[in-house]
Amino acid sequence: MSPQVRHLIIFSDNAAGQNKNRVVFALLQELANSKCDVVTINFPIPGHSFLPIDRDFAILEKKRRKVDRAIAPSTWTIFIKEAKIAQPFELVFVEKAFTDNLAPDHTTIVRVKDYKNALNPLFHPRANIADIRGLQFTRGLVVLACTEYDVGFVHDWNPYVAHVSPATLHEAKEGANHAYDENTFLAVPNNAKNDVNMLLDYVDLPQNVIFYDSIQLNYV
Q: How far is C-alpha 27 from the geometric centre of its chain's CA atoms?
C-alpha cells in the first residue's frame, strides 16, 4: 500500500467466518496504527453488494466451463493466470507449492498464522455485531460504528478488554504462531483418499505429477 494513503476504505460482505469477526477487526486496527491514519470497513446490506470480487468469480466460472479436465495443479494455476489478460490475477500459494511436482516455482508462498488464538484474548464478545454496517478504526484504539439505521459513524464501539493498548495489540499479532507445520501436509480422511486412488486408476498422469502422493491418510 502506498504511504500516501492515509484513509483506507474497504467494502466487504457480511460473512462472519471470513470478514466480520474480531481477528479481522484487530488486523484493521493494527493497520490504522502502523500504516495509515484511518481504516474504514463497510458491510453492505446482504443481497445488495456487487463487489469487484463478484465479477472476478464470474470471470473464473465462465473460463472454468471451457476446461475439459483438470488432473494436475498446473491446469488450475495456468487457468487462473490466463483468465484475465489486461489485469491478470496475482496468484499466490498457501503453505505449500501447488505445483505438479510440489517444487517451488518462484510463486509467492504465504504462511498461515493462528491469529485467532493470539488475538481472541484481547476482545470481549459483541452481541450486536450483526447490526453493524460499518466500522472505522483510527490510530490508538478508537473505533466508531455505523448501523443500518445511522448516517455516518456515530457510535463509540469498544471491542477490547480493559488492559489492551496499541502496544499489546501489536505484540499479540507479532507473536502469533504458524497454524501448520511447514514440513507436513494436511491429512485427509481415508474415504477421500480411496476415492482419489480409484479415480486415478482411470487417468494417465504425466511422470512429473507427484502431487497426489502428498495426500495423507486419516485426519490430523
A: 12
Query: How far apart are alpha carbons 158 and 187 in whole angstroms?
Result: 39
Q: Three cell numbers at 9?
A: 476504505
What is the number of other CB atoms lying within 10 angstroms of the CB of residue 219?
Answer: 9
Tens of pLDDT along 54-81?
888 888 898 888 888 888 899 999 999 9
Beta-carbon neighbour count of residue 25 at 10 Å? 23
How would you label 32-65 residue by residue, b for 16+ Cβ within 10 Å and e otherwise? bbeebebbbbebbeeeeeeeeeeeeeeeeeeeee
* Whole-number Å distance between alpha carbons of 131 and 129: 5
Cell numbers for 24, please give them. 479481522
Q: Measured between alpha carbons, how far is residue 122 from residues 46, 64, 100, 126, 182 in Å?
A: 29, 42, 42, 13, 28
pLDDT in tens, 126-153: 656 777 889 999 988 888 888 876 777 8
Q: Where are the beta strands (DSSP E) in 118-180?
A: 132-138, 142-147, 155-156
What phi-psi label fits residue 150: left (phi over 0), alpha (psi between -120 and 50 degrees) or beta?
beta
